[in-house]
Design goal:
- The protein is α+β, with helices and mostly antiparallel strands and 70 residues long.
- It has one domain.
- The protein has a three-stranded antiparallel beta sheet, with helices on one face.
- A hairpin with a 6-residue loop joins β2 and β3.
- It is globular.
Amino acid sequence: MSKLDFSIVNKETSDSFHKQKSVIKRVLAGKKVACESCQQPLILVPKNQEGHAYINCKKGCTNIELEVEM
């Protein structure tokens, strides 16, 4: 059995995390950010009763759940 190289997976995961973090920062700063899939603007949906807010597009291609302290 060959040994798996997780460095590639780790790099992809890290890149994805930083990209998502950048999107969140730009949306929260009020900047226009388009969904990568449908090019619709991403919007901030205020927190619900469970204390979660979302950043998403109208089609739902992008859906980032945010935990918000009450």
